[in-house]
TrEMBL record:
Keyword hit for Transmembrane: no
Organism: Glaciecola punicea ACAM 611
Keyword Transferase tagged: yes
GO MF annotation list: protein-tyrosine sulfotransferase activity
TPR repeat residue numbers: 78-111, 276-309
Entries under InterPro entries matching the protein: P-loop_NTPase, TPR-like_helical_dom_sf, TPR_rpt, TPST-like
Protein name (Swiss-Prot/TrEMBL): Sulfotransferase
Alphabetic keyword roster: TPR repeat, Transferase
Length: 658
């Protein structure tokens, strides 16, 4: 290695070696990377750079070994899959090359090299689509291709910096505006994303990519009717576009118009009978409507088209009441074990197999699949507990009874919201179903408004920054707190059906009790609590649609539960009598007593419908959807005991002192 590189950082050496590779000085680049890896063994990007060099030198076997090592550590490394494609192509292994390129493009659709090879492959079935991608990427300024690639590599701050720099010189470039909005969405600053996309469409009203993203952002902000309007505009501009029909169906489903959504998805399938992903979405809509048998048929048809489609099997298992056939069990095992099955499908298969084996009382083997699925998911998510710990510790230190006394005149006085908080799988859906059966209470869904406000107050933060939120709550004026509360009431209005009260059932709102109290001091807050081992292990067994990253490791979920209990204990001291704790086990033991207790806390008269909650036909969109359509049951109270030998990491995390 040259003297000037001896003390350089690995990233600097890699950058220099990339320049050498581009100049064809492969031996020199290879030696420099080897020297760097001697000092920094296992450096993923260094190994990747070396594999590129080896491939260009014709050292295909060595390159493949290095790429296999990278993918064993980082299965989502798109460029490593692309390199495998180049090597298979060089060896004349066309089928394997196509598979590798397709895997790369699923992970990063901006890889021009992969699209170009596929577009030039005469027998490739999706050649026309590949050509369109080549043309699209070639039409973009190189800086924006780099921004998009950085987004897929999850290097968001670098992407944002580059995108903003580009927009200084090209302030109305539509793709740059769309990408900046995508970054805002990634940062959970959804109001910024919405504004950017609306502005983009003012300049370029026919830009379909931006309008489609606009639909998605409006849905994330739970502005479902506005999203539906935009989805209709999109489809009117291109009535035969399958993707836009699917977008309309999703928008209809989000507004609760499941009948129209089912009709839209069925019309898509009329012309695209083998679209397994639309079949899956149709199944979800049917399930939410309570048409479980139709949902089962649809999920089965989905996996009959794509036999390794793990999500179809998990969707069946997630009904909680479905039992797999012997053939289905064999199929799941075969594809879960296959090296060609995508990681996301393996995750789905693991959770489905775990649920099936649990139903058959093969608990040790069930745990092995649950553990494997959680490990794969955790490797994808890379959960870090520090930001949440910092937030909760700040609230415990900063917001005591004296703080709330000083702010008692702040906030919007509306008593409308009833917040149900806690951990997932703690019985919050059951409590929502009970309360929403009352004539004066509207059930809604897990509303994102409070969490969205918290993200907005925090702003764009890099990992090492000290977060602005929740400390910023010390500095917000009473007028602004009142405006925030009024905005919450206004923005949630479209979820309501006219009752006096409504439910916001976002479990993780327990992390924002101080914010809720400041902006909505008359809101009711119910803490849905469940036995620690029951709650945590039930979460560990559940593959969530999104979020809840803490639940994919026994140590992480135990730590999260402990921090939750600590902060709720703090609120009992800082806000005595404010929060009603409802223990799931008590609801199961004496339903009527707990129902009366909940209604008394909410200031509501007793209604028998709350006891008969399972007769409520409202759509339920959580993993407990089928369970809350049945009378209350005790069979699941202590399922964790069947797995007790495996739960030492959870017990240790729950017992650790703060």
């Amino acid at each position: 290695m040259p003297d000037q590189l001896n003390n350089a950082l690995p990233e600097q050496i890699i950058k220099q070696c990339q320049l050498l590779i581009n100049k064809g000085r492969l031996s020199e680049a290879s030696k420099n990377i080897d020297d760097m890896l001697t000092k920094n063994p296992g450096h993923i990007e260094g190994i990747y750079c070396l594999s590129v060099c080896q491939r260009k030198q014709g050292k295909h076997a060595q390159a493949m070994d290095n790429l296999a090592h990278i993918l064993s550590k980082m299965p989502e490394h798109a460029r490593a899959h692309q390199e495998q494609g180049f090597i298979h192509k060089a060896l004349g292994e066309t089928t394997k090359a196509i598979v590798a390129f397709e895997k790369a493009l699923v992970l990063n659709p901006t890889l021009f090299g992969s699209w170009r090879v596929l577009a030039d492959e005469p027998n490739y079935s999706k050649r026309q689509e590949a050509k369109q991608h080549v043309d699209w990427l070639a039409s973009l300024p190189p800086a924006l291709v780099s921004v998009s690639s950085l987004i897929y590599q999850k290097k968001l701050h670098r992407a944002e910096k580059l995108c903003r720099h580009f927009l200084k010189d090209n302030p109305h470039q539509p793709e740059a505006m769309r990408l900046l909005a995508e970054l805002a969405s990634k940062f959970q600053i959804l109001d910024d994303a919405e504004f950017l996309l609306a502005s983009c469409l003012q300049f370029e009203p026919t830009y379909k990519r931006a309008r489609l993203d606009y639909v998605h952002v409006l849905q994330k902000r739970q502005k479902f009717h506005k999203a539906l309007e935009q989805a209709k505009i999109l489809l009117d501009s291109d009535p035969n576009n399958t993707n836009l029909k699917i977008s309309l169906g999703n928008a209809q489903q989000a507004t609760g118009d499941f009948s129209s959504a089912v009709g839209t998805f069925e019309s898509v399938l009329h012309d695209n009978q083998d679209n397994y992903s639309v079949l899956l979405t149709l199944g979800h809509a049917l399930k939410t409507m309570g048409r479980v048998e139709d949902a089962i048929k649809t999920y089965r048809k989905s996996y009959s088209i794509k036999p390794d489609f793990g999500d179809a099997f998990w969707s069946l298992a997630n009904l909680k009441t479905y039992r797999f056939s012997a053939d289905e069990r064999l199929q799941m095992r075969e594809y879960e074990a296959s090296s060609t099955t995508a990681i996301i499908d393996k995750i789905h298969f693991c959770f489905a197999l775990g649920k099936d084996l649990e139903d058959s009382e093969h608990f040790d083997e069930a745990f092995s699949f649950y553990h494997r699925g959680n490990k794969l998911k955790n490797e994808q998510d890379r959960y870090d507990s520090k930001p949440i710990d910092i937030s909760l510790d700040t609230q415990e230190n900063d917001f005591d009874a004296a703080f709330f006394e000083r702010h008692k005149q702040s906030g919007c006085s509306a008593p409308d919201p009833i917040f149900i908080v806690g951990l997932p799988r703690a019985g919050s859906t059951l409590l929502e179903q009970i309360l929403s059966s009352h004539s004066q209470v509207d059930g809604t869904m897990e509303l994102a408004n409070i969490i969205g406000l918290a993200h907005r107050l925090n702003g764009r933060q890099v990992a090492q920054d000290t977060p602005r939120y929740p400390g910023i709550l010390n500095n917000i004026s009473a007028d602004n707190l009142t405006k925030m509360g009024e905005l919450y009431i206004e923005e949630t209005q479209h979820h309501r059906q006219g009752a006096i009260f409504f439910i916001d059932k976002m479990p993780n709102n327990f992390r924002h009790i101080a914010l809720i109290q400041l902006i909505l001091p008359n809101a009711k807050i119910i803490d849905a609590r469940r036995n620690a081992l029951s709650c945590c292990f039930s979460g560990f067994k559940q593959l969530f649609g999104e979020g809840q990253q803490f639940s994919y490791d026994l140590g992480d979920i135990g730590h999260y539960y402990r921090k939750y209990v600590e902060i709720m204990d703090h609120w009992d001291k800082a806000l005595p009598g404010k929060i009603l704790r409802v223990q799931y086990e008590d609801v199961v033991a004496d339903l009527e007593m707990q129902v009366r207790r909940i209604l008394d806390y909410c200031g509501l008269p007793f209604e028998q419908a709350c006891i008969d909650f399972h007769s409520n036909k409202r759509a339920v969109r959580t993993p407990s959807s089928e369970q809350v359509r049945q009378p209350i049951y005790q069979s699941g109270l202590e399922q964790w005991r069947n797995y007790e030998l495996h739960l030492e990491p959870l017990k240790k995390a729950l017992s650790e002192s703060g």
